[in-house]
Amino acid sequence: MSVLLATCVGAGAWQRAGGGETGRHAGNVVEEGAKTGGRAVRDGALTLGRTTRAFFKGGGKAARETWNANARRTGETARAGGRATRDAAHDHDGDARSAD
């Protein structure tokens, strides 16, 4: 939901800027934010799937360990995405792009 809102806000900023430099800058920020949101959704789905599998294969303890390991990985991904979004917001040359 927040990704959709950010996309709409970013698109509006781009249109108000007439598609100029400010619009491209806003577009880069929205793009990085959307990537971060998409990765969070992906990581959440993977965490749920892996935890469910671990529960049925190894019980509650295995599921808890799997959940915690995936939560750490998701946090690292989110922090990296936050840095990429922040860099895009502060980059006025349009060079800040995260590597996928």
Detailed description of the structure:
The protein is mainly alpha-helical and 100 residues long. The protein has one domain (2-90). The chain is built from 2 helices and no strands. Helix 1 (2-16) crosses helix 2 (21-90). The mean pLDDT is 78.
Short précis:
This protein has helices at residues 2-16, 21-90. The chain is mainly alpha-helical. It has one domain.
Descriptors for this entry?
2 helices, 100 residues, elongated, mainly alpha
Write the SSE topology:
Layout: H1 2-16, H2 21-90
Helix pairs in contact: 1-2
Low-confidence stretches: none
The level of helicity is: over 70%
Mean pLDDT: 78
Main β-sheet: number of strands, strand sense, barrel status? Answer: none
| Strand/helix succession | HH
Strand content: under 5%
Briefly note the structural class of the backbone.
Answer: mainly alpha
Radius of gyration: 17 Å
Distance between the termini: 23 Å
Q: Could you give the count of β-strands?
A: 0
Name the overall outline: elongated
The total domain count is 1
* Number of distinct helices: 2
